[in-house]
Fold this sequence. Notes:
Elements (H helix, E strand, L loop, with lengths): L1 E4 L7 E5 L6 E6 L6 H16 L3 H17 L1 H12 L3 H26 L3 E3 L10 E8 L2 E5 L7 H12 L3 E5 L5 H13 L7 E3 L4 H9 L4 E5 L2 H13 L3 E5 L4 E5 L5 H13 L9 E7 H17 L18 H16 L3 E8 L9 E8 L16 E7 L2 H8 L7 E5 L3 H10 L4 E4 L20 E2 L4 H7 L1 E8 L14 H13 L4 H22 L7
Parallel strand pairs: 6-7, 6-9, 7-8, 9-10, 11-12, 11-16, 12-15, 14-15, 16-17
Antiparallel strand pairs: 1-2, 2-3, 4-5, 5-19, 10-18, 13-14
Amino acid sequence: xxxxxxxxxxxxxxxxxxxxxxxxxxxxxxxxxxxxxxxxxxxxxxxxxxxxxxxxxxxxxxxxxxxxxxxxxxxxxxxxxxxxxxxxxxxxxxxxxxxxxxxxxxxxxxxxxxxxxxxxxxxxxxxxxxxxxxxxxxxxxxxxxxxxxxxxxxxxxxxxxxxxxxxxxxxxxxxxxxxxxxxxxxxxxxxxxxxxxxxxxxxxxxxxxxxxxxxxxxxxxxxxxxxxxxxxxxxxxxxxxxxxxxxxxxxxxxxxxxxxxxxxxxxxxxxxxxxxxxxxxxxxxxxxxxxxxxxxxxxxxxxxxxxxxxxxxxxxxxxxxxxxxxxxxxxxxxxxxxxxxxxxxxxxxxxxxxxxxxxxxxxxxxxxxxxxxxxxxxxxxxxxxxxxxxxxxxxxxxxxxxxxxxxxxxxxxxxxxxxxxxxxxxxxxxxxxxxxxxxxxxxxxxxxxxxxxxxxxxxxxxxxxxxxxxxxxxxxxxxxxxxxxxxxxxxxxxxxxxxxxxxxxxxxxxxxxxxxxxxxxxxxxxxxxxxxxx
Length: 534
């Protein structure tokens, strides 16, 4: 989407345009940077009352949110298709259905996930202590969304933060402004308290301002450049930050893979969102003995995909976000060609009736190496770079040679080998004979491995990450602590006995019982308030 801010002196506005045709779809008022702290403060005024509700009572609102998405399904579909330039089937499968599923799962399982949990304590250290973990809200959580994940991912993050008792300030991507407004409408239809969630519209500078504002935690999804600034601003102010910077996902195709399925999976996950979806495949490592057959089938499949305006039901691949992004994709491709790569198909195109310089036909490259920038930098376009490998070991090493370790997939008939490879891959998520270019598995965590991001969202881990763990213990009021002072010869002998009782050697444990039983009895008497001779 081409999103621009007007030059009006009264109120800057963000204009939303159809990236395929340039049609103006609407506009929203941009939030001035200097007002961000006030927006957060307004949410903080409402949040304490929300936090007083029981988790299961908050969960009812999540179910209402899911129902609102179901009721407005067709209207939401139309807005997202036009604003994102994506086919209707893709938006339904990767945005609306995952949003509904995530909300219903949070409603059904959230109270269990965020309910108090018992913690076992050592009787050797505390005779009668009981302990449990409770989950408490942070306060106000800032959610910063990405244009490539306009609906399901931020809505799931907002719902998780709300279930944990937080208020939310949400900044959608500028090119997903109308999607952000529709999220706001879903929340309103669910009957959430007014002001509990507020939206701040703007570009990257508003996201940085939100991280600098008095929010208590930041959930960021977006580009590496902005994400690192946001993470730095949060950590500098001692806030917890969860950051998802996108990925350069790898696909490993072994010699025994089902070739038609692997090819179809590569096209699906490589071209979803015109290659801009979170978790889209960009690198493909194929066993050398099937490389040529795989590339041939991949090229045939890529050339058969219809590129154009998603308003046409035949379209499978829509436009990129902007002309600048098309230029970036083509620059990476041309640079690789100059260094010896081979382009089998794809490149800039202008379908009939569409804006020029906004479309890129699915491209397949071979002969690429890791010295090329196209194998190291995120592409954000429908480009599949294929590399022949001589062994599984080589494939794993190359797949791990990336700073953007979001997801990866392994395609093979050998389930046990696939599971072994999955453990060796440095990625936040690994799929076997599948590749998910969106968080469609809403019951599992979504996030990158080291260097590709911080923390997890969605699933049980994501829900718990929206709350602070608090340890609460109980001791009988009439008992002294087992290891309270005064520290004397009795307490030292008792500590030595306890240590020996935990030895791995049976002889140590037997000797400790013989020599230390009386010492432990005297220590216990002291705990119960009785006299204990040394």
